[in-house]
Amino acid sequence: MNQELVTNFPVTDRVKEALAVTLRGCEELIPQGEWLTKLARSEATGVPLRIKLGLDPTAPDIHVGHTVVLNKLRQLQDIGHTVIFLIGDFTSLIGDPSGRNTTRPPLTPEQIKINAQTYYKQASLVLDPARTEIRYNSEWSDPLGARGMIELASKYNVARMMERDDFNKRFKAGQSISVHEFLYPLMQGYDSVALKSDLELGGTDQKFNLLVGRHLQAEYGQEPQCILTMPLLEGLDGVEKMSKSKNNYIGISEDANTMFAKVLSISDVLMWKWYTLLSFQSEADIAALKKEVEDGRNPKDAKVALAKEITARFHSAAAADAAEQDFINRSKGGVPDEIPEVRLSGAPLGIGALLKMAGLASSSGEGNRLIDGGGVRVDSNVVSDKALKLGAGTYVVQVGKRKFAKVVLA
């Protein structure tokens, strides 16, 4: 028998506030009524709810787009609930086909272990480590064995699996779907059974997998989890979702100056969505700030505040202040206080080769293209001659707005 939600708990003001925290910036909460009942029960009994986020460590670095769901977890931690940071070391061996039109190659156990360690270290910059339960799904997936896997597979039918958008499109296009790919949503769903999850978070592209977890919990006689999907964050271009492959991202391990400058580069329109999804300010404070901008305050003031908040989260308040001053200096054509020093030999040296050797361009050809675009300065003077040769001496070389090097040429 499925467990039934008991619904006679009072919906207090604190419960309503917890629901508002849950809904902030979310795409969908399914079903909202059940989540409200879970919150009311937790408030009445003092038993925290179990909130799960599963991440396959497919790449070692996290960008701020990934932190949208981490921020939501932190908000739910701050109102007293238990967060389970689930590392999919077993499911990474399968490869998540979500949103893909080809089979994703699985990772090796060694790659998974390295990436998982990096993932959690970076996620801890957002989550409260003292209130985070770290689990690996190999704990229960490895012992399942062939018999358990067959039993699990019997609890979901092929017709429903083929309702999944990416499977459906690939099938209609005559593209290959490997049988093992059907196991991925089943294993992710089984994670919810093993953890007795009350709520699972994910991006909008994970909705199908999250619903499988809800179905399997009911099949195993558990109270089904609720599902919270968060929107995918647009990157710096304001068009595509944030992605390293699109080069429109901010890595959370990037230096403070770069992080600050990148936040300031987003549009005034996109800034408000970033406030909702990335800021820890209250919705009331954000609404008041937006009203000030609508009434004539410079939107750059709001963007600077957001840039400082995000930079301080991943570095420090002092680093954020220094990054702001660095940005001001650069915008006035000034040189940052601290720039890397590079010692080179071979004077006189062509400017293209110098840019490459100083690490300011990937090749001499790229250096020449930067010169053609007016993006190279030596001692604050724009370089227009690609044939320029520099003799022995010390030079401040700048590429674009953010790359500097003090070059000592001998």
Automatic annotation (TrEMBL):
It catalyses: tRNA(Tyr) + L-tyrosine + ATP = L-tyrosyl-tRNA(Tyr) + AMP + diphosphate + H(+). The lineage of its organism: Bacteria, Pseudomonadati, Pseudomonadota, Betaproteobacteria, Burkholderiales. Gene3D superfamilies: HUPs, RNA-binding S4 domain, Tyrosyl-Transfer RNA Synthetase. GO terms for biological process: tyrosyl-tRNA aminoacylation. InterPro entries: aa-tRNA-synth_I_CS, aa-tRNA-synth_Ic, Rossmann-like_a/b/a_fold, S4_RNA-bd_sf, Tyr-tRNA-ligase, Tyr-tRNA-ligase_bac-type, Tyr-tRNA-ligase_bac_2. It is an enzyme of class 6 (ligase). GO terms for cellular component: cytosol. ATP binds at K244. Catalyzes the attachment of tyrosine to tRNA(Tyr) in a two-step reaction: tyrosine is first activated by ATP to form Tyr-AMP and then transferred to the acceptor end of tRNA(Tyr). This is Tyrosine--tRNA ligase. Homodimer. A motif ('KMSKS' region) lies at residues 241-245. A motif ('HIGH' region) lies at residues 57-66. It holds the Pfam family tRNA-synt_1b. It comes from the Bacteria. Belongs to the class-I aminoacyl-tRNA synthetase family. TyrS type 2 subfamily. Keywords: Aminoacyl-tRNA synthetase, ATP-binding, Cytoplasm, Ligase, Nucleotide-binding, Protein biosynthesis, RNA-binding. Its EC number is 6.1.1.1. Its main location: cytoplasm.
